[in-house]
Amino acid sequence: MKLSRALCGCAAVYAAALSLPAQAQFFFTPHDMTAPPVTGSEPRYAADFPGATPLEVRSALVWQMRAALNVAALQCQFEPTLMSVPNYNAILFNHKDEIKKSYDTVSKYFVRTNKTLRAGQNALDHFDTRNYSSFTTVNAQYGFCQTAARVALRAAIAPRGQFGKIALEETATLRNALVYWGDERFPRHPSVNAMARVPNLDPRCWGKRGEWVEKTCGPMDTALASNTVR
Predict the structure, then answer these.
(1) Tens digits of per-residue pLDDT, 84-96?
(2) What is the pTM of this model?
(3) Domain map of the chain by residue range?
């Protein structure tokens, strides 16, 4: 009996380990993408959703987060240990009610702010298209996929009704991950100071034989040329 219990315990631990994404899928030190949570009251959201209520803006952020994780599930399959697809499917199952409610609220917003039902549907379609396009990246794929994998795991195991909270807390972080940062330990594009360092070319500072006249201009400064040549 004790042996069987021990084997069951080992199996449970092994299964749990398999369900979690690896901590380091790529051999590089990623940039810290962490950003403060959003509230939905930021100017950019007011511009994106004019006349929207706080509930409508929050619902739009929930729907945007779902779109972002959908893009990640499609774009990040090249690295299976990220668990992008299984975790996204778990999100759709565990948070289906909250996601559907957010979609219904966003749909009603576009219908309310357009003259006709058809115009509202077209506006919603454009909104969805922009959503998916805005989370597509090539250069920053590694950083985006790692960040999205962490967010997806957090959302997949979160209690039902908490997906909106995660969307507010992780939206800005996921946006940061769309920017290419590269390896933080070994930068591929090191900065090079190419500023020319030439001596002061003021004629008063040079003698007839081309020697520096320290008595007139002080110690020679090779940093930058003078702008006061007369």
Answers:
(1) 999 999 999 999 9
(2) 0.68
(3) 17-176, 194-230
